Amino acid sequence: MQRERDDATNRLTALIAENEQLKASQKAAELLKLRGEVGALRQSLANMAATNRPSAGLSALMRDPAMKEYIHQKQLKAIKERYAPLVQQLNLTPEDTEKFTQLVGDALLKGTDLASSLTQGDGDRVQTLKAMADTRTEMQNQLQALLGEAGYAQYTQFNQAIPAQTTVKLLNKQLGDNGLSDDQSAHLAQIVAAEPYAATHGIDGELDPAFFSSQEDIDAYLQQVVASNQRILDQASSFLTSQQLAALEIVQSNSINAQITKAAALTQKH
After folding, report:
1. How distant is the alpha carbon of residue 98 from its chain centre?
2. Which terminus of the chain is more exposed, N or C, with fewer CB under 10 A?
């Protein structure tokens, strides 16, 4: 019995080790696949530019004043919708609500302009990326002054919770009539919220700065996202059905592919 127990223990240890190796190889394969998709999309967009086909690149849009204003108004509308619960929570006056929306909107438009300059190869890339970071810092300082310390803390917490809420929302949409129970939703949100924000924020359509940087930075970001997604799946397997788990994997995959597609279009040079 002792020998049998030892044999069983050894087999279990070996199986665990083999399982970890399989997971590692799957992550590497997935990362290589994503990198291939980035390269393929960039090549496709480059071919479109070479043949003078119409392009939806960011720089082309931002050169048109009317389109630039249209983009800005769409951004302001999205900001109002996104932060409506926070505005209500903070009990902001209509005047402060408008200031809040304009601060975030102006920073977003400036960031879009800077991103557009990167697609054109204008100026120094490092300096442009620094300017984008400075724009974000300036916005944060202005928001702190507007909302106060406690209000700004709630703003930060609100942003941090968005990836978790969006994941649950997208998964329920994917599942249709067979959505998650309240307990499942709360548990999944908790798992996603525990992950690094840098790895989960793309689920809401926010484009990571890595896509405006080097291929090495893109690879590092994708690797971080893939690892985070796998941790979420591993933990969710304890309370989601196989069908729900498969749907969650589709949501994660769609999110990464959407980011890659968007980044490839926005960083196309003209």
Report:
1. 26
2. N
Q: Are 259 and 202 in contact (CB under 8 A)?
A: yes
pLDDT score for 64: 74
Contact 209, 6 (CB under 8 A): no
pLDDT of residue 141: 95
Q: Which two tokens stand for residue 202?
A: 């793309």
Rounded Cα distance, 170 and 248, in Å: 9
Q: For residues 261 and 42, is the Cβ–Cβ distance under 8 A?
A: no
Tokens of 74: 């769409």
Sequence letter at residue 36: G
Q: Which residue is it, tokens 């980044």?
A: 263
For residues 233 and 245, is the Cβ–Cβ distance under 8 A? Answer: yes
Does this model's pTM top 0.85? My answer is no
User: 59 near 119, Cβ under 8 Å?
Assistant: yes
Asked if 202 contacts 247 with a C-beta cutoff of 8 angstroms, the reply is no
**Sign, CA torsion 205/207/208/211:** positive
Whether the CB-CB separation of 84 and 131 falls below 8 Å is answered with no
Mind listing the pLDDT tens digit for each residue in 96-113?
Answer: 999 999 999 999 888 877
Contact predicate 268/46, CB 8 Å: yes
Count the helices and strands in the chain (H runs, E runs).
9, 0
Are 262 and 206 contacting, i.e. CB atoms less than 8 angstroms apart? no
What's the pLDDT at 49? 47
Q: ∠ CA(18), CA(13), CA(17), 5° rounding?
A: 25
Q: How many CB atoms lie within 10 A of CB 15?
A: 10
